[in-house]
Amino acid sequence: xxxELLGTFVLPGEKLGExxxxxxxxxxxxxxxxxxxxxxxxxxxxxxxxDKYWINNNxxxxxxxxxxxxxxxxxxxxxxxxxxxxxxxxxxxxxxFGFPGATKKNRPQLKINDTVYARIVVSNGTEEPQIVCMDKxxxxxxxxxxxxxxxxxxxxxxxxxxxxxxxxxxxYLGKKLKFEIAVGVNGRIWxxxxxxxxxxxxxxxxxxxxxxxxxxxxxxxxxxxxxxM
Amino acid sequence: MTKRIDNRNPNQMRPLSSILxxxxxxDGSVIYSxxxxxxxxxxxxxxxxxxxxxxxxxxxxxxVVKTEQRDDLRKEKTLEKDLKGILEYxxxxxxxxxxxxxxxxxxxxxxxxxxxTLVNACVLALCDAGIEIRSLVYSITFLITENKIxxxxxxxxxxxxxxxxxxxxxxxxxxEDSIVFSKCIGLTSLEIYDKCLEIGNVAKLxxxxxxxxxxxxNQNK
Lengths: 229, 221
What we know:
Chain A is of the alpha+beta class. Chain A has helices spanning 156-162, 168-176, 196-208, 214-228, and strands at residues 9-10, 15-18, 25-26, 30-33, 36-39, 43-48, 52-56, 69-78, 81-85, 92-95, 115-122, 130-132, 144-146, 150-153, 179-184, 188-193. Chain B is of the alpha+beta class.
């Protein structure tokens, strides 16, 4: 892999390196063609030790990957499954048994248009992705139905930023308001707070501060607060 | 070199401009113009597809082209068919089987070289949407009169010259310089066609540079 190109902006179709004996892992935006590694999306080439390469790009449409946490809307009941819309190619399948403590007699009580927070367990290119509302030890731990609140769409980069441990915008908002938030990597954010006004404020704060650094973001949030009062 | 109607040299393209990602409904979009020819292209996908269009091993590409006045449907259909072929080459359709990628192009103003503008705009919109691409393509149109080859013609030039022909080339920069698509309207000799190819292979580098600049600036948003 060409080390000069790391951290630079690449266009799709650029040859980035040859396949040789060193095993490496290639991720988002990289494919292998004719024995060489070629980029298939435009973005910045990244590297994480010891052997992971991928292209950092921003897009709105989500490609399901096993293990990621997503927010979905229930669109249909089919047999013993729910069909859940994740914003992907095809709707995902959420089995009735994908809930903690579920048995044939003990079924989940979800309805159409409910919001769920789930984890992807199966996703290959050929069949529908499958999700469950529990963690590996079959406990709820935050998965399941998200009751009330308001859900909106954003770009994938923004949702990944809000999943980082010490997000500055969330901590700033948390000092002033009380709210509950759920972030899905499929570009959806769910917010629940005491009043409608607070929810609107938080939604605007998140959407308007995309791509800003800390100081300009605080300015924007303060402006939103002043306009609300 | 004699100057053209709009003061350009024969080998000079019009100024290019693009605004990426303005359309919130689509996954990727661009408002792209070459001089005064302006198009808006939006990309949706990969998304769910009807069973009759579904392909088990690759994505289906659908193109919709709409002109300003909607008076020449034949022109729209021809553009759709040509674009579909080029985009099927460009998009890595094997990466998302059983899905559909819909590209919608609205022609906001037609001032010559419409086909090339549409192709270049589709490339930018697809990159903005994050759809996987095999290799980028670049399109240039030439106007050929008795003794001159003019790159990127405008409507005024085409209208004033009675006996002319046009060549539209879509080129890619894969391993070697290769032609993806070529369309000739009117008679052209092989030597002149080769000359167009030569000029095109140089011009595509400046189009590529422009695309890289626009996409890089958009990335930092």
